[in-house]
């Protein structure tokens, strides 16, 4: 019963927008809901990345600790975001800190479970990889744009 | 040169009514035009500082209030630095208005997406004023505004007011700064969660040219027609009437045929190196 409800809820998430109902059902077998309080870390750099997070509610800061300069926020993200691609790719380690800026509700997709399904069903695996690749592509575009620092005074 | 073009070369003297410091390098001048100054959102004037030079500056005020002429200016060169020293009662020369404005009427009955980077918010503020007066006939108005850092943000009070009055305002900074609790990331990120209807939306984009290209790409990816995206192109404007050729970009004289152009016209020009 809970799986069925979870599948219905998952279908509402932008990551699952292009998935067929049976793919969502399949994915929901690895998913559970998780909540994080404001200020709580969803993940810490260096920890094992064993969960793919689909953000449902709340805002999250992507941070990196710079020695001598403290924690630096690289980006903030909101509902609809997908975090924790490292759960699918070796060495399965978080490369950033993820801190809840507001109370957060996420779908936590178990990484081991997801990897088994992706490897075991290549059609499903292709779909998940393609959807993740689109997310990675969008993030890469944003990173490039940020790197150009276009809004610096000398460029305007 | 036609008589009209010759007349357009003569600066009108105007007095500064008010000086507003917007942030560390940007200020707004409110000028007394003497008589009503009629313009379209997106048009610009040549501001003339005697003995120093002229600079093309977009009009950042409300087109429905022609009794005051408003310019928001970033201090980046000699002329703008001199403009920044003006105070109420001081005089300067004004030629204009020049150029083609934003096609604001096209937003009626549609969603309107406004994307601004840095000082690019200034030429779009007249569009926001227009949108405020037409909230019943423009379906939804979304503003995505990106500044480099919190200290570079423009028109913070206006943005809050626009939000209170029904516009959907989202702001972000590229880099975190002390006290900032808002979004961090580039302006294109803001577009991801805006619930506009791509097939019946008009977008107006102003900022650095690379930002325009990235923004247009994001808008097209969600299904917007390229012809519904309008952008501004900036080049070295001199005469303002398409005579001198300083602002030529390809076959376009931006002071006369722009600075606002449809993206299909801008895209090939943006991709040409060294143009």
Structural class of chain A: alpha+beta
Which two chains touch over the largest interface? A-B, 26 and 30 residues
Query: What fraction of residues of chain A sit in β-strands?
Result: 25-35%
Biggest β-sheet: strands ordered side by side in the sheet of chain B: 10-9-8-7-11-12-15
Topology:
The complex is a heterodimer of chains A (156) and B (275).
Chain A: H1 2-11, H2 21-28, E1 31-36, E2 41-43, E3 51-57, E4 60-66, E5 70-77, E6 82-83, E7 97-100, E8 104-110, H3 111-120, H4 122-148
Chain B: H1 3-8, E1 12-23, E2 26-32, E3 44-49, E4 53-58, E5 69-74, H2 78-83, E6 91-98, E7 111-117, H3 125-133, E8 140-147, H4 156-164, E9 168-173, E10 183-184, H5 187-190, E11 201-206, H6 209-221, E12 229-232, E13 248-249, E14 252-253, H7 254-257, E15 260-262, H8 263-270
Parallel strand pairs in B: 7-8, 7-11, 8-9, 9-10, 11-12
Antiparallel strand pairs in B: 1-2, 1-6, 2-5, 3-4, 3-6, 12-15, 13-14
What does this structure look like?
- The complex is a heterodimer of chains A (156) and B (275).
- Chain A has 156 residues and is an alpha+beta fold.
- Chain A has helices at 2-11, 21-28, 111-120, 122-148; strands spanning 31-36, 41-43, 51-57, 60-66, 70-77, 82-83, 97-100, 104-110.
- Chain A contains 4 helices and 8 strands, in the order ααββββββββαα.
- In chain A, strands 1-8-3-6 form a 4-stranded antiparallel beta sheet. A 4-stranded antiparallel beta sheet of chain A has the order 2-7-4-5, with no helix packed on it.
- In chain A, strand 4 (60-66) and strand 5 (70-77) form a beta hairpin.
- In chain A, helix 1 (2-11) crosses helix 2 and helix 3 (111-120) packs across helix 4.
- The longest helix of chain A is centred in the last third of the chain and has 27 residues, at 122-148.
- The radius of gyration of chain A is 17 Å and the shape is globular.
- In chain B, the strands form 3 sheets. Chain B has a 7-stranded mixed beta sheet with strand order 10-9-8-7-11-12-15, with helices on both faces.
- In chain B, strand 8, helix 4 and strand 9 form a beta-alpha-beta unit.
- Chain B is α/β, with parallel strands linked by helices.
- Helix content of chain B is 21%, strand content 31%.
- The two termini of chain B are 27 Å apart.
- Classes of the chains: A alpha+beta (156), B alpha/beta (275).
- The A-B interface holds A 59, 61, 72-80, 101, 138, 141-142, 145-146, 148-156 and B 25, 74, 76, 117-119, 146-148, 152, 172, 174, 176, 181-186, 188-189, 192-193, 207-208, 210-211, 214, 217-218.
């Amino acid at each position: 019963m809970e799986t069925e409800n979870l599948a219905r809820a998952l279908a509402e998430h932008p990551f699952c927008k292009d998935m067929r109902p049976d793919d969502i059902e399949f994915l929901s077998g690895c998913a559970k809901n998780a909540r994080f309080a404001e200020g709580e870390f969803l993940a810490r750099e260096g920890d094992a990345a064993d969960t793919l997070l689909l953000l449902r509610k709340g805002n999250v800061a992507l941070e990196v600790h710079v020695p001598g300069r403290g924690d630096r926020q690289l980006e903030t993200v909101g509902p609809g975001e997908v975090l924790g691609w490292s759960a699918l790719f070796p060495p399965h380690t978080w490369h950033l800190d993820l801190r809840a800026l507001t109370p957060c509700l996420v779908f936590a997709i178990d990484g081991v479970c997801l990897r088994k399904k992706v490897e075991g069903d290549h059609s499903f695996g292709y779909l998940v990889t393609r959807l993740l690749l689109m997310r990675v592509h969008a993030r890469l575009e944003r990173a490039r744009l940020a790197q150009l620092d276009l809004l610096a005074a000398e460029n305007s | 040169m036609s008589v009209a073009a010759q007349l357009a070369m003569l600066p009108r003297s105007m007095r500064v009514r008010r000086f507003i410091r917007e942030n560390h390098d940007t200020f707004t001048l409110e000028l007394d035009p003497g008589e009503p100054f009629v313009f379209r959102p997106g048009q610009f004037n040549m501001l003339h500082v005697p003995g120093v030079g002229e600079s093309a500056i977009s009009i950042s005020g409300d087109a429905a209030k022609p009794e005051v002429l408003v310019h928001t200016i970033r201090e980046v060169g000699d002329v703008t630095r001199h403009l920044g020293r003006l105070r109420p009662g001081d005089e300067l020369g004004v030629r204009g208005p020049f150029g083609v404005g934003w096609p604001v009427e096209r937003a009626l009955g549609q969603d309107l997406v406004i994307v601004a980077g840095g000082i690019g918010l200034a030429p779009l503020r007249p569009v926001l004023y227009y949108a405020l007066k037409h909230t019943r006939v423009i379906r939804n108005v979304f503003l995505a505004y990106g500044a480099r850092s919190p200290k570079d943000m423009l028109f913070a009070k206006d943005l809050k007011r626009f939000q209170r009055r029904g516009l959907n305002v989202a702001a972000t900074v590229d880099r975190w700064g002390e006290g900032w609790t808002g979004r961090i990331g580039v302006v294109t990120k803001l577009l991801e969660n805006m619930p506009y209807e791509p097939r019946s939306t008009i977008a107006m984009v102003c900022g650095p040219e690379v930002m325009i290209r990235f923004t247009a790409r994001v808008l097209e990816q969600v299904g917007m027609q390229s012809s519904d995206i309008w952008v501004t192109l900036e080049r070295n404007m001199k005469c303002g009437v398409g005579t001198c050729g300083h602002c030529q970009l390809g076959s376009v004289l931006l002071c006369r045929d722009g600075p606002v152009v449809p993206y299909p016209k801008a895209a090939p020009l943006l991709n040409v190196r060294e143009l």
